[in-house]
From TrEMBL:
Keywords for the protein's UniProt record, in alphabetical order: Coiled coil
Residues forming coiled coils: 146-173
Name the UniProt record assigns to this protein: Uncharacterized protein
Extent of Polar residues compositional bias: 37-50
Lineage: Eukaryota, Metazoa, Porifera, Hexactinellida, Hexasterophora
Region annotated Disordered, chain positions: 37-58
C-alpha cells in the first residue's frame, strides 16, 4: 500500500515539460544560413527597381503568325497548318527575349458561353412542351372516340372486301368455262341435286296419298 501511495503522490506532483531538441553545431549552421537568405531577400525587395515595360507587338504580326497556325480547308480537304506548335513556341520565345509583349490567349467567358448554349433554351422549351401535353390530354377522350370509330369502319370495310372476294371466287368456280373447278364446288352441286331429288320424291308421295 505504501508503494501505491508514493506512486499516486508522484503522479499528482508531476508537471509535463516540453521536449527540446539539443542544438548541434550542424543545426546552428543551418539556422544561420536561413537567416542570411531571409536578410538578402528583404534587401533585394527594398532595392529592386520596377521591371521595364515591354513593347507592344508590331501591328498585324501576331495575327499573321496565328493565321499560319490554323488548318485550311481547300478543295474539300483539310491541309495542315504551316507552323507547328514547336516552331510557334520558338517564335514566341524570340519575341519575348527581344522585349515584346506576347499577347496571352483570352480565356473563355463562361457567362457568354452559357448565354449562347443550348442548355439555356431547355427551360422555356420545357414549359411550352408541358403546355402542349396538357392541351393534348384534354382532347384525349375525343381523339379516342375518333380512333375507335375509324378502327371499326376499317374492320367493316375489310370484312366486306373479304366477302366480295369470296363471292367472286365462288362465281368464277361455278362458271361453265372453268374446266377444273375445285372439289367444294362439285360437292355443292351434288348437295343441290340431292335436295332437288328429295323435293321431287316428296311431291310424288303426297300425290299418291291423295289418290
Amino acid at each position: 500500500m505504501s508503494i501505491l501511495k508514493s506512486i499516486s503522490s508522484i503522479a499528482k506532483n508531476f508537471v509535463p515539460t516540453k521536449l527540446v531538441a539539443k542544438k548541434t553545431p550542424f543545426s546552428n549552421k543551418f539556422e544561420k544560413e536561413i537567416q542570411s537568405l531571409k536578410s538578402e531577400a528583404s534587401e533585394n525587395q527594398t532595392n529592386s527597381s520596377p521591371l521595364p515595360e515591354r513593347l507592344p507587338m508590331p501591328p498585324g504580326v501576331y495575327n499573321d503568325i496565328m493565321q499560319k497556325r490554323r488548318a485550311k480547308f481547300v478543295r474539300g480537304f483539310w491541309q495542315k497548318p504551316e507552323l507547328s506548335a514547336v516552331r510557334l513556341a520558338g517564335i514566341k520565345k524570340k519575341y519575348i527575349l527581344a522585349g515584346y509583349n506576347w499577347p496571352s490567349k483570352p480565356l473563355r467567358n463562361v457567362a457568354r458561353y452559357y448565354e449562347n448554349s443550348r442548355s439555356t433554351f431547355y427551360h422555356p422549351d420545357k414549359i411550352k412542351r408541358m403546355e402542349k401535353i396538357d392541351a393534348c390530354m384534354k382532347k384525349m377522350p375525343e381523339l379516342l372516340k375518333q380512333y375507335n370509330l375509324r378502327i371499326k369502319l376499317e374492320k367493316e370495310q375489310e370484312e366486306l372486301k373479304n366477302f366480295k372476294t369470296e363471292q367472286e371466287i365462288y362465281l368464277d368456280a361455278l362458271n361453265a368455262g372453268s374446266r377444273n373447278p375445285p372439289s367444294w364446288v362439285e360437292e355443292d352441286k351434288r348437295q343441290a341435286k340431292l335436295k332437288k331429288a328429295q323435293s321431287k320424291q316428296l311431291i310424288i308421295t303426297t300425290k299418291k296419298k291423295k289418290k
